[in-house]
Design brief:
The structure is a single chain. By secondary structure, this protein is mainly α. Helices cover 82% and strands 0% of the residues. Helix 1 packs antiparallel against helix 2, helix 1 packs across helix 3 and helix 3 packs antiparallel against helix 4.
Length: 100
């Protein structure tokens, strides 16, 4: 789970770096590329199957991305985002805790 959280953080922060780069700061592109490469490496580390890992990862990514959006950008989630997010997290739990 720690690896998936680290991967989600790398992806979200890499996306944020790209956004900074698009805004005119070249260092944002460099940071974004490094972080996104780290994400790709990290997300492929778990010992369980690729599909199962990415199924859980999507739920972890949602939570991390919303936390970063709130802290770094001041974005507040709407009620529909919270409901949809709860469904995403529930799906991640079904994938992780399921037997198949």
């Amino acid at each position: 789970m720690i690896v998936l959280i680290a991967a989600a953080a790398a992806e979200v922060l890499g996306d944020l770096g790209m956004r900074i780069g698009i805004g005119g700061r070249v260092w944002g592109y460099a940071a974004g590329v490094c972080l996104l490469a780290g994400y790709g490496w990290l997300v492929n580390q778990p010992a369980f199957g690729f599909g199962r890992a990415l199924g859980l990862y999507i739920a972890v990514f949602f939570v991390v991305s919303q936390a970063v959006a709130f802290v770094a950008l001041g974005d507040r989630p709407s009620p529909s985002l919270l409901v949809g997010g709860a469904l995403i997290v529930a799906g991640g739990l079904v994938i992780q805790l399921g037997r198949g």
